[in-house]
Amino acid sequence: MPTGPTLGAEQLAALGAGFTGELVEPGASGYDTVRRVHNGMIDRRPALIARCRNATDVAAAVKFARASGLEISVRGGGHNVAGRAVIDDALMVDLSLLKGIYVDPDARTARAQGGVLWASSTARPTRTASPSPAARSPRRASPG
């Protein structure tokens, strides 16, 4: 079992001050659920999970990790079969709450945030949008 860095209350308070998402520490309610990835063989325990709600949260989490000397892993919305979204004793930047889809019908383009799944990205067809190259699984992350 990992015995990584212990984050002090002062450090967490500094991150939490402008953070609009949720910070989940080991031992907190929901920690085990949030840290899991699709592949049940992956059982890693990050030092902290930053469930980001916007780009400002992502930037704050990355800055915090750099200042704290933590490795960073990024969790999107999908499978992550290889388990790279979670690293022992690191900061997991969880993008699964970022589900915005922005369509520009004139340019015939779309941008998807990091937590969007294929089922969400293909569920809103428009008369001007081209079909997306859909994945076979609706739980797979959309390449935004």
Structure explained in plain terms:
- With 144 residues, the protein is an alpha/beta fold.
- It folds into 2 domains: 86 residues, 2-Layer Sandwich (Uridine Diphospho-n-acetylenolpyruvylglucosamine Reductase, domain 2); 46 residues, no CATH class.
- Helices cover 22% and strands 16% of the residues.
- The strands form 2 sheets. A 4-stranded mixed β-sheet has the order 1-2-4-3. Strands 5-6 form a two-stranded antiparallel ribbon.
- The termini are far apart.
- About 4% of the residues have low confidence.
Q: CATH H-level name of the largest domain... which superfamily?
A: Uridine Diphospho-n-acetylenolpyruvylglucosamine Reductase, domain 2
* Beta-strand content bin: 15-25%
Order of H and E elements: HEHEHEEEEH
Mean pLDDT: 80
Question: What profile does the largest beta sheet have?
Answer: 4 strands, mixed
**Principal-axes shape call:** globular
Rounded to the nearest angstrom, the radius of gyration is: 17 Å
Number of helices: 4
Order of strands, widest sheet: 1-2-4-3
Instruction: Tell me which CATH architecture of the largest domain applies here.
Output: 2-Layer Sandwich
Strand segment tally: 6
Tell me the span between the first and last alpha carbons: 34 Å
State the CATH topology of the largest domain.
Uridine Diphospho-n-acetylenolpyruvylglucosamine Reductase, domain 2
Number of domains: 2
Structural class: alpha/beta
| The CATH C-level class name of the largest domain | Alpha Beta
Helix content: 10-25%
Poorly predicted runs: 135-140
